[in-house]
Amino acid sequence: MPVAYNESSRTFHLFNNEISYIFKVLENNQLGQLYYGKRIGDRNNFDHLLEMRPRAMTVCAFESNRLFSLEHIKQEYPAYGTGDMRLPAIDILQENGSRILDFQFKDFHVYQGKKKLPSLPATYVESEKEATTLEVILVDKLIQAELVLSYTIFEQMPVIARNACIKNLGDQQLVLDRAMALSVDLPDMDYEMIELTGAWSRERTVKKRKLEHGIQAIGSLRGCSSNAYNPFIALARNGCDEYAGEVMGFSFVYSGNFLAQVEVDTFDVTRVMMGIHPHSFNWPLASGESFQTPEAIMVYSDQGLNKMSQTYHKLYRTRLARGKYRDLTRPILINNWEGTYFDFDEDKIVGMATTARDLGIELFVLDDGWFGKRNDDFAGLGDWYPNLDKLPNGISGLSKKITDLGMAFGLWFEPEMVNKDSDLYRKHPEWTLETPNRHSSHGRNQYVLDFSNPEVVSHIFEAMDKVIGDSNITYIKWDMNRCMSEVYSASHGSNEQGKVMHEYILGVYELYERLITKYPDILFESCASGGARFDPGMMYYAPQGWTSDDTDAVERLKIQYGTSMVYPISSMGSHVSAIPNHQVRRNTPIQTRANVAYFGTFGYELNVNELDEQEKKLVMAQIDFMKEHRNLIQFGTFYRLKSPFEGNETVWMVVSEDQKQAIVGYYRVLQQVNSNYRRVKLMGLNPDYEYEVSINNTLNYGDELMNVGLITTDGSSGEPVDHYNGLNGDYQSRLYILKAKNQ
Ligand code: DGJ
């Protein structure tokens, strides 16, 4: 039984073969945190793990007891002002103006499996045996509020999923000002905090900082999870690297404003919290109403960052992503955005599709510019009907022409947005998020529709439904190209404005859910100016996301490497684009562009009719390669071997589940002269298998490749002759294919 409750010590122990998570009911009936980490044995009593020391001048709960101070006891879901003076996990404004809370243990339930979270994305199980859930029920008797803390421990993975639900069972009006999905107090501060930070076109850079006293936090107030900070942090023990050391990951299954905060007190206790950002959030809870937080996923690894990432990959690929495409290799697509931008018509698109089909591409995606008066980014958003000047046969006619070519057809939408120059805005100016009597800022000349208003969501559903229903569409790219500002909803009263940002995201989820329910065969790709909403919440609806608008192969090494910290290869949209690259003007070889893009969903983002014959041959070979290997790449186990953030070379690899095949991606940014000997130690192979290694044309045992290393020495020494199979020059790369012999 992976959840043990000891009645006499009132202790809960969640465990599987890899992890233990222990907390207990304290003497004041609140919950105290005892341990989170590598599995320890289940014992009758863990009270000796509860640290209480008498300290002078501290606030204590009980008279003549100087031990019991909430300032010092590690807690499970703390509130402010009862001795604990740190930022709390929960904050409720009561009718008398008080915020003091006292959630005391009342009961608990344990059950096999995992419940759905109403209206929210969440991990799931396919059989009840896969996980066990503990729900702990706490009550604040004075205000008659109930708090249910939910913990799901997965049987076969070092994963605990957590959420909280708050219910107003009393008569007074409560206002929830903060409700974290998780909080955990750790006994020391010897950690580095890892975050994924960035901006447009440089998303998810891996940053590390040593914990210090005080608050270190990341978050978003942008209305989307954002490209500035991804809703993920990890606490890695000092010295932890990719393959050794202890690390705890915290990932938030949510796509809106979030807070990931680590507060270290002056006794070195580290408090981690994750949830909806409390700024701009306040949620009136009338009698009988409840609020459900999104879920946060804790992953533990004692084998470094790679193991943590592999756990997230497996969980998110198989038990967060849903639908037909979850387990299917992804179609190789061509997207016309960088190939044409807004400048296209039906003939041009069909011409591109015909060539793409001849090259072996499987899906044509028509990007922005097909609807309303959309010839630039000043007009048209909101008018989801075809621009007949460009596409005289509409989307239905175009999609038929493309499917008649033998290709699938996909379409771009930006459902949440409107331009002022649109029929929709002219008809419903009140449907945008704008604060009355204040100036409204634009982003890319567009405004945000009020998705907290169900009428707006229904209107957009119907508009999209009409286009989809009339056409042969098997893929949708859902874009979102601006952050929110001056948020105010005309559909909400003055005391309900604090609900708008969360309800907005619920509206986005609702629209996704309606679309995937009605069109289960459509593959969705999420996008937000590239990767500004690349988060686990989106993965629940769209199994893949456009990783970044930066398609340069060198930049992509960092972006995809950072993204792989949490997200699986099968979720990363990655395309070969033209040179000079449109974002950085760099010229990289087409083979390197493909060698990077293979480690994702793979496709092209250029005008194939501008390729010369030699390039076309290469593209055909690339497509053949990807068709042969995409199952391994998208569903194998991914290992990061050398970081682009640390040097001139990047190396990563993917290994099949049966360990019979592997592909090593080796990328060298700048050419050096007469360089040193180089090897890279591989991972995940079978030590006893003998592998044929392409390029080197050697036979190596797995133990050799993992311990001696794969030889990647690049001997070019300034001679005009290339002795090393095309590895001369800058921005070069190689894929080493490993095949186990006689297996
Ligand atoms: C931003 C996306 O990231 C691009 O791929 C493209 O779809 C444009 N929007 C279109 O406006």
What does this structure look like?
- This protein is of the alpha+beta class and 743 residues long.
- It is 19% helix and 29% strand.
- The protein has three domains: 3-319, alpha-galactosidase from lactobacil brevis (Beta-galactosidase, Chain A, domain 5, Distorted Sandwich); 324-417 and 460-481 and 528-634, Alpha-Beta Barrel (TIM Barrel); 642-740, Sandwich (Immunoglobulin-like).
- It contains twelve helices and 39 strands.
- The strands form seven sheets. Strands 6, 7, 8, 9, 11, 12, 14, 15, 19 and 20 form a ten-stranded antiparallel sheet that branches. A nine-stranded parallel sheet has the order 29-28-27-26-23-22-21-31-30. Strands 5, 10, 13, 16, 17 and 18 form a six-stranded antiparallel sheet that branches.
- Helix 6 runs parallel beside helix 7 and helix 9 (553-563) packs parallel to helix 10.
- The longest helix is centred in the C-terminal third of the chain and has 23 residues, at 613-635.
- The site of (2R,3S,4R,5S)-2-(hydroxymethyl)piperidine-3,4,5-triol has 11 residues, from loops.
Morphology:
globular
What is the domain tally? 3
Low-confidence stretches: none
Biggest sheet details:
10 strands, antiparallel
The H-level CATH homologous superfamily of the largest domain, spelled out, is alpha-galactosidase from lactobacil brevis
The distinct bound ligands, ions and cofactors come out as: (2R,3S,4R,5S)-2-(hydroxymethyl)piperidine-3,4,5-triol
Query: What is the fold-level CATH name, i.e. the topology of the largest domain?
Result: Beta-galactosidase, Chain A, domain 5
Structural class: alpha+beta
Overall strand count:
39
Q: What fraction of the residues are assigned to beta strands by DSSP?
A: 25-35%
- Discrete helix count: 12
Helix content: 10-25%
Average pLDDT: 96
The assigned CATH architecture of the largest domain is Distorted Sandwich
